[in-house]
Amino acid sequence: DIQMTQSPSPLSASVGDRVTITCRASQNISSFLNWYQQKPGQAPKLLIFGASTLQRGVPSRFRGSGSGTDFTLTISSLQPEDFATYYCQQSYDTTPFTFGPGTKVDVK
Amino acid sequence: QVQLQESGPGLVKPSETLSLTCTVSGDSISPYYWSWIRQPPGKGLEWIGYIYYSGSTKYNPSLKSRVSISVDTSKNQFSLKLSSVTAADTAVYYCARRGYHYYGSGNYLWFGPWGQGTLVTVSS
Q1: Residue range A49-78: average pLDDT?
Q2: DSSP chain B
Q3: Among B81, B120, B42, B51, which Cα is nearest to A9's?
Q4: Chain B: residue nearest A41 by CA?
Q5: Using alpha carbons only, how large is chain A's radius of gyration in Å?
């Protein structure tokens, strides 16, 4: 299985901060990397697919980058509704699909 | 807009079989792939498996011996069965559509939209 790791966790930040979350794959996954946002009591929501393509309706303050084994999710200016847990997920090897452990963004 | 809703017992006894159904509304179950994903309380996400509307399946090898996913296109539903459950199978179970984007030499794959999730507790 491809192992996914994320850092930091948790991440403490304030409204307006630029926030960067890192995801690393245990092997080269090209750009087959997705990012999800999960708020308490809710299902995950897709933010970015293909490492850098914003899902329709996702605010442009979210940006994904990277390829190979190292990826980042950047929130350019953190908004109150962005406090949540963020997961990366690889789709290079589909048996199985695997997720990172999550990065919780909380209030500093 | 497609919506998914999980249903099934919230409590299952150890060694028994967990059974859940996902009802899809707002769109046809064809011609998509449909997944089950679970999340133990306070922990991360684990992909269980998916089914194509035609019935072909793919499962997580870690669960393959205990998992079965089926589809009923006439009811726009798909279902999960997980046998011989233990406390480690206690989790919120989500159903989700497997999305894709064709980029020229393959497909990017992801999960979305998702159902709201249903908590299944394994306890006697």
Answers
A1: 97
A2: --EEEEES-SEE-TTS-EEEEEEEESS-STT-EEEEEEE-TTS--EEEEEEETTS-EEE-TTTTTTEEEEEETTTTEEEEEE-S--GGG-EEEEEEEEEEEE-SSSEEEEEEEE---EEEEE--
A3: B42
A4: B116
A5: 13
Q: How far apart are CA B93 and CA B119, in angstroms?
A: 6
Is any Cβ of chain B less than 8 angstroms from the Cβ of A24? no
The tens-digit pLDDT sequence of chain B (124 residues) is 999 999 999 999 999 999 999 999 999 999 999 999 999 999 999 999 999 999 999 999 999 999 999 999 999 999 999 999 999 999 999 999 999 998 877 789 999 999 999 999 999 9
pLDDT at A8 over 80: yes
Comparing C-alpha atoms, which of A6, A7, A9 is closest to residue A106?
A9
Euclidean distance between CA atoms B18 and B9, whole angstroms: 8
Asked whether the beta carbons of residue B45 and residue A91 sit closer than 8 angstroms, the reply is no
**Dihedral angle at the C-alpha atoms of B54, B56, B62, B65, nearest 10 degrees?**
100
Of A31, A91, A96, the CB nearest to B109: A91
Using one digit for the tens of pLDDT, what is the confidence trace for A28-51?
999 999 999 999 999 999 999 999
